[in-house]
Amino acid sequence: MRIESIKSLVEMANAKKTKVGNIVSEMQAEKEGVSIDVVLDRMDSYYQVMKESVENGIKADFDFQTGLQNDIVSVSDKYFNSKKTILGANLGKLITSAMAVSGYNASMGRIMAAPTAGSCGIMPAVLTFCEDNGAKRSDIVLSMFTAAGFADIIAELATFAGSEGGCQAECGSASAMASASMAEILGGTPDECAHAFALTLSTILGLICDPIAGYVEVPCMNKNILGAVHAATFAELSLAGVKSIIPSDEVVLAMKDVGSKMHENFKETSLGGLATTPTGLEIKERLLNKK
């Protein structure tokens, strides 16, 4: 059986009175001709990589190619555990985790691309945030199938590549996937998961990919933070009853449309945005001379 649309996945889950994650995991097991335990165990191993990337990223001493912001995670972690913050340590952990995994990737650490390396901090930050707040690991792992099922439609109708669709295709997709997962983890219905996905993706359309000097450091780490907080926000709003006016499948098509019309300077070429500011160009020149 093939996933034809997010709408069809939601309808199947509703008809069987089950979670989208159950539908997708069963479809995967049937496709491979293996037991459901096999695909669940494999997904659990992927989650373990995500957890370790958060832990390692927080402990790591970064040595970025730009030589900038090497201490960004420790500085942020210290602040969010101080009495100065009004956001609090809980949200601070979500922020720090997204930054940590993104930075760990930029330092060549082992990460799980979900769906891309450039957006790798979003899913781990959101999923471990849920576990830190009492979610069961089994529910988290199952929710990753929901994210994967919805992501299949992005792969089918649009793209995950920043070089093709800008950062909306990378961090936007990751954020939408994470939001759908979180909504399911928190007890959301299949419809609420789809609304979380659509709300998240629809409000991040047009996000450009403009890495300074071509390195996945600035502003990539900050966009991972944006994606994680964005995902958590709309997951909870969907549970509150907020609905996306535009259906999920149509939002994916809208992302494709935006990406196709986006100028190539904003698609991972470092020829626009922050990469071509005076400071961005100065950093690029310094690194070229260093080589």
Could you say how many structural domains there are in total?
1
Q: How far apart lie the N and C ends?
A: 52 Å
Strand content: under 5%
Contiguous runs where pLDDT drops below 50 for at least 5 residues: none
- Given helix and strand content, the structural type is mainly alpha
State the major sheet. none
Q: So what's the overall shape? A: globular
Helical amount: 55-70%
Number of strands: 0
Radius of gyration, CA atoms, in whole angstroms? 19 Å
Secondary-structure element order, as H and E? Answer: HHHHHHHHHHHHH
Mean pLDDT: 97
Number of helices: 13
Provide a descriptive summary of the structure in words.
- By secondary structure, the chain is an all-alpha fold.
- It has one domain (6-290).
- The chain contains 13 helices and no strands.
- The protein has helices at residues 6-16, 20-32, 36-59, 72-80, 88-106, 122-132, 137-157, 162-165, 167-185, 190-202, 220-240, 248-261, 278-290.
- Helix 1 (6-16) crosses helix 2, helix 3 packs across helix 6 and helix 6 (122-132) crosses helix 11.
- The longest helix is centred in the first third of the chain and has 24 residues, at 36-59.
- The radius of gyration is 19 Å and the shape is globular.
- 49% of the residues are buried.
Summarize the structure.
By secondary structure, this protein is an all-alpha fold. The protein has 13 helices and no strands. It has one domain.
Question: Notable features of this structure?
Answer:
291 residues; mainly alpha
Layout of secondary structure:
Blueprint: H1 6-16, H2 20-32, H3 36-59, H4 72-80, H5 88-106, H6 122-132, H7 137-157, H8 162-165, H9 167-185, H10 190-202, H11 220-240, H12 248-261, H13 278-290
Helix pairs in contact: 1-2, 2-3, 2-7, 3-5, 3-6, 3-7, 4-5, 5-6, 5-11, 6-9, 6-11, 7-9, 9-10, 9-11, 10-11, 10-12
